[in-house]
């Protein structure tokens, strides 16, 4: 198919459906006509300020209407948009901003104060272009919209880097166009489709959340803040808002299952497809879904690194897949080819495990101003002799099944995904070594009962005694909270191989962090507290959590909150507001909330959403990570 710039596709939709609602979020709505006119006005302002072709322009806003307006405006001006998630740790935000060294930054009214503080520190000389979608329209429109080439840079998203510095991935225009039109055609997306927007603005998955609906006359539907962490409320929101398509990670999907499977659970009558990506989908989760909905709602399993632009393989999950050890990641989409190569860069025989190499003209342009890192993974095709024919070495391993589908096996290096978010273990280790008391460290993954990455454990070789809480405080401003190890295990010396490298296979099993909880331990006193203590022990690195221990102080983090509340629903048959739990995150308070709910009955959707409105800015900042939940 011939290339079309994505903002041109949105413009075509606006011409066909000017009065359709393009974006619907807690702050309000925008029609297609308003979206076009507002992005035109902002494009004029950008050009008037001197921004133009190839300019990198970060976007700092919390209102998704402002985000989409800004993205379209930057593209119309010929620039490169950089969505910033303001819930990320402050030091990480500074690193991302300074590494791209932009001269212009778009600041939405919804985030003016927070953005201003960060920019004062990181980019005091950058021009700040204000954006307020509620202001009186000016009617300004650019004399011309920049005509992009397919290989022009379009965006920058950040991923973890082994040196402790996030790596900036530069995406190209044709990569967005290729994926958006492919998925729209695959799913039969139509005008009027309502598509959920659950991903963080700093995660490239947001491109499919936004542009699949906006190029087909659909509506981007944004839930209240914090909803992705509240599985029961999210399931009811999808039902009440008549959502047709959901993109999410399996962790969020799993959080909805207890509510969905319960008697009287939401029908999800409008839902047509749940597209899952970012981490492994558990067969048991798919089985629970099929038991409730059969095959009426499609489950689409997607795989693809950000370096190759969102998805590159896909698989429609079937009930038969639930009998497998793992759900396949499928076959390559049109326009992409996947080959498995062994350690000698030779094709693997069917059934043999090899590294996934992706060949496609729609991959990204590599890492921003990091040519060595780019050359390390974008390599000449080992199966050809053309030095300009490149493939991307994913570091992921898979095997080919008899039907030609791929079964994901694991990673080659120290990258893992927790809650759908890529975590570079080397980055966590690098930052830990920056603490004055740490001589060396090795960070490993702690799996859940299904073997999926759940949390991190850091073995720490120190030069002087240091409390785990001090190490957490050192990492917290620099990493999303799901990347901060739950457990810190002091060791006299890390085990090493004969070459001097850390021997990870010789590391001891992580021990529960009882030393952090023993002194203020209060045992469960009721049956409800005993049941909750068992749930907490299954999620946290503490074998005996006390009823007054703070969930977050003993290893809990945002990615576990949803699993905790889902477990409460499954165990007790009631739902506890996210805000109520955040106000007092202890077993004692949670038990009181459960017993109150059992006395008066469970909350309805309006109550749940009202509770989310009370989530404070500090709560949201603590909970929301770069996964968008996701």
Describe the structure.
With 630 residues, the chain is of the alpha/beta class. Among the domains are: 331-411, Luciferase, domain 3; 415-516, 2-Layer Sandwich (GMP Synthetase, Chain A, domain 3), CATH 3.30.300; 522-623, Non-ribosomal Peptide Synthetase Peptidyl Carrier Protein, Chain A (Orthogonal Bundle). Helix content is 33%, strand content 21%. The strands form seven sheets. The chain has a five-stranded mixed sheet. Strand 9, helix 7 and strand 10 (219-221) form a beta-alpha-beta unit. The longest helix has 17 residues, at 32-48. It is globular, with a radius of gyration of 24 Å. Residues 512-516 and 608-630 have low confidence and may be disordered.
Q: Tell me about the largest β-sheet.
A: 5 strands, mixed
Distance between the termini: 31 Å
Mean pLDDT: 85
The CATH architecture classification of the domain at 415-516 is 2-Layer Sandwich
Unreliable spans:
512-516, 608-630
Global shape: globular
Query: For the largest beta sheet, what order do the strands appear in spatially?
Result: 11-12-13-14-15
User: What's the number of helices?
Assistant: 19
Percent helix among the residues? 25-40%
Rg is 24 Å
Number of strands: 25
Strand fraction equals: 15-25%
Structural class: alpha/beta
CATH class of the domain at 415-516: Alpha Beta
Set out the fold topology:
Elements (H helix, E strand, L loop, with lengths): L5 H11 L4 E5 L2 E4 H17 L7 E5 L3 H13 L3 E5 L5 H11 L3 E5 L3 H11 L4 E5 L21 E7 L7 E6 H15 L6 E3 L9 H9 L4 E3 L9 H10 L4 E4 L1 H12 L11 E4 L6 H11 L4 E6 L9 E4 L14 E2 L4 E5 L12 E6 L11 H7 E3 L9 E11 L5 E6 L3 E4 L2 E4 H9 L4 E10 L5 E10 L5 H8 L11 E5 L35 H13 L18 H15 L5 H6 L3 H14 L4 H9 L3 H7 L7
Parallel strand pairs: 1-10, 3-4, 3-5, 5-6, 9-10, 11-12, 12-13, 24-25
Antiparallel strand pairs: 1-2, 7-8, 13-14, 14-15, 16-17, 17-19, 18-19, 19-20, 21-22, 23-24
Helix pairs in contact: 1-2, 2-3, 4-5, 6-7, 8-9, 9-10, 9-15, 14-15, 14-17
């Amino acid at each position: 198919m011939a290339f079309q710039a994505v903002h041109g596709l949105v413009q075509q939709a606006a011409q066909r459906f000017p009065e359709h609602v393009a974006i619907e979020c807690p702050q309000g709505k925008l029609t297609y006509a308003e979206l076009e006119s507002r992005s035109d006005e902002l494009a004029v302002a950008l050009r008037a300020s001197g921004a133009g072709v190839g300019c990198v322009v970060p976007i700092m806003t919390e209102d998704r209407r402002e985000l989409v307006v800004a993205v379209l405006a930057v593209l119309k001006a010929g620039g490169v948009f950089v969505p910033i998630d303001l819930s990320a740790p402050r030091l990480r935000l500074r690193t991302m901003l300074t590494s791209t060294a932009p001269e212009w930054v778009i600041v939405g009214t919804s985030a003016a104060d927070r953005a201003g503080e960060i920019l004062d520190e990181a980019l005091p000389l950058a021009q700040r272009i204000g954006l307020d979608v509620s202001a009186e329209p000016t009617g300004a429109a650019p004399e011309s919209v920049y005509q992009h080439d397919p290989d022009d840079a379009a965006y920058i998203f950040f991923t973890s880097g082994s040196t402790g510095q996030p790596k900036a991935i530069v995406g190209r225009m044709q990569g967005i166009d290729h994926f958006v039109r492919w998925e729209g055609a695959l799913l039969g997306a139509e005008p009027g489709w309502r598509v959920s927007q659950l991903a963080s603005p700093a995660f490239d998955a947001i491109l499919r959340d936004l542009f699949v609906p906006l190029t087909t006359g659909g509506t981007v539907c944004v839930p209240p803040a914090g909803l992705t962490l509240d599985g029961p409320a999210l399931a009811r929101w999808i039902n009440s808002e008549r959502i047709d398509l959901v993109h999410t990670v399996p962790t969020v999907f799993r959080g909805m299952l207890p509510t969905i499977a319960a008697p009287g659970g939401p029908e999800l009558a409008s839902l047509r497809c749940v597209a899952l990506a970012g981490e492994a989908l558990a067969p048991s989760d798919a089985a629970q879904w099929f038991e409730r909905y059969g095959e009426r709602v499609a489950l689409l399993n997607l795989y693809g690194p950000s370096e190759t632009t969102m998805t590159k393989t896909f698989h429609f999950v079937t009930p038969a897949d639930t009998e497998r050890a793992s759900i396949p990641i499928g076959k390559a989409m049109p326009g992409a080819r996947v080959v498995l190569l062994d350690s000698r860069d030779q094709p693997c025989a069917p059934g043999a495990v090899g590294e996934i190499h992706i060949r496609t003209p729609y991959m990204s342009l590599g890492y921003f101003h990091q040519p060595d890192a780019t050359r390390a993974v974008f390599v000449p095709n080992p199966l050809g002799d053309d030095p300009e024919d490149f493939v991307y070495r994913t570091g992921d391993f898979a095997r080919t099944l008899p039907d030609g589908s791929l079964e994901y096996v694991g990673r080659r290096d120290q990258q893992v995904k927790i809650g759908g978010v890529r975590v570079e273990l080397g980055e966590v280790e690098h930052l830990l070594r920056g603490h004055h008391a740490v001589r060396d460290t090795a960070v490993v993954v702690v799996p859940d009962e299904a073997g999926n990455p759940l949390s991190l454990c850091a073995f720490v070789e120190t030069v002087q005694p240091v409390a785990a809480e001090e190490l957490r405080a050192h990492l917290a401003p620099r990493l999303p909270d799901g990347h901060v190890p739950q457990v810190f295990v002091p060791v006299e010396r890390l085990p090493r191989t004969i070459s001097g490298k850390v021997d990870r296979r010789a590391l001891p099993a992580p021990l529960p962090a009882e030393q952090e909880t023993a002194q203020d331990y209060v045992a469960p006193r009721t049956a409800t507290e005993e049941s909750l203590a068992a749930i907490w022990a299954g999620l946290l690195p503490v074998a005996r959590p006390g009823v007054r221990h703070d969930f977050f102080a003993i290893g809990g983090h945002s990615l576990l909150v949803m699993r905790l509340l889902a477990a409460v629903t499954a165990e007790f048959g009631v739902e506890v507001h996210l805000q109520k739990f955040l106000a007092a995150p202890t077993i004692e308070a949670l038990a009181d909330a459960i017993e109150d709910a059992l006395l008066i009955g469970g909350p309805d959707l309006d109550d749940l959403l009202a509770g989310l409105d009370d989530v404070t800015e500090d709560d949201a900042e603590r909970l929301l990570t770069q996964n968008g939940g996701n």
